[in-house]
Design goal:
Elements (H helix, E strand, L loop, with lengths): L17 E4 L8 H12 L4 E5 L23 H15 L1 E2 L5 E6 L4 E7 L8 E4 L4 E8 L2 E5 L2 H9 L5 E13 L17 H11 L3 H9 L1 H36 L5 H4 E5 L4 E4 L8 H5 L4 E5 L3 E7 L4 E7 L3 E14 L6 H6 L5 H11 E14 L6 H21 L2 H6 L2 H7 L1 H17 L1
Parallel strand pairs: 1-2, 11-13
Antiparallel strand pairs: 2-5, 3-6, 4-5, 6-7, 7-8, 9-16, 10-12, 13-14, 14-15, 15-16
Helix pairs in contact: 4-6, 5-6, 6-11
Amino acid sequence: MPEDISSAKHGNDESIYEEWKSVDKLDGEPEEWGKYIVGLANRYGGKVIFGKKDNGDFDGKGIFDRFANGSKSGLDKVKEKIENFCSDKISPPIRCVMEFDEGDFGDILTITVPKRSGIPHAIVKQDKQWRKYYIKTNHGCIPIKNDKSIEWLFAFNNESKVISRSKVFININEELLPFLPSVEFKHYRIRYLDWYGMMVERIEKNKMNEIKQNYLMLAGDLYQQISVYACLYGMSWGLSEYIKDLALRKGSQLKYDQDYTAIPFSEIKMQKMDEPKIGYSLELAHMDEHIIAPIGTTIELGSSLGNNIDLIVIHNDLFSVKITFAQKVFGRGLGFENPNMYLHFTTKELSSRLEELDQKVSYLRMELILEKAFDFPEKGQAKLDDCINYVDSLSQYINTDWDFDNHIKNFPTFYKLYNIEHKIDRLYEMMSIQREK
């Protein structure tokens, strides 16, 4: 988005963020110029510039003087007119910032329109019983008439929303590296461990030997780095299943070659901000795998060891999904918050069991945060509906394959062990037993 009005002075084209209007527009019906304020607010926000015509020519100097009335200057009357319209004829009201610039090319008044933060704005009449919605597009500012577009206005506002937070726990038996990590629920295995295991098996043996020799410093870095690729690997499988299911539901209406594409891992953009202690990304990025996505979709990876986060961003002109791997903690033992710790309480005494685990087991704990955003469907509602279904399938994959709490709830016994009240009671009981001995 333009940060100042300098672009307005040099004949640049209008954009999705900017509208140029001759001062003569202010002589007409307020809706004829007010719709641009509403349309910008309902999309990304932006600027309406009075004093510059659609073709890029400027109206000239002193163009606001003719609006003078009594003791008020023409510029003050124009500002008052715009402020009154934004407060009385737009619902919810819009608070704009107006800036006058008296330049060599001519006078202009720039109205900076904020992006809406809640329900969409509309031009209202007749005690607000009549409402008309507008939105800014690449082809101008258009009225919104059909139900689907109005539904988008109320459901989305181009803002990213957190839709899920998933807990991830991984136990690593140091004696068994480089074999698979585990979460020890007898015959029950969490899906994401399979994805981790497949990633670990791809790491070169000499790097694994280096990890074993300097375990505490490097093992956490290994599992944190491959978290992103483990998620992508599972996604490649899960989204392929989604496309098969979609094809069954839509039948001949689904044109796979026209609607979807396969993005190889090697084409995923990497935005690494910090260098890891030991690198695995290059060999993992060239796995012979791909991810199914709507045509025009881009996948980017990012990480910051300083901020202890990793990112997967999947986006095109209609949607954006961000998966953040955050609050990552790596340490020896099982960790106090790990549900497996309480399973071990039932088999051995607390002190001896924890001492044994501290010698051979480490853990990785983190949170997966899933966010989504949808843009206005300029090219048709059907494409947006497909993208919404696609994003829902991504969300289902995260919740099904990665969310530890979701798994626990499917197993009542483990859920009871995981329940915080039971944890406190069990800890108290174990401590009491230790004191009696």
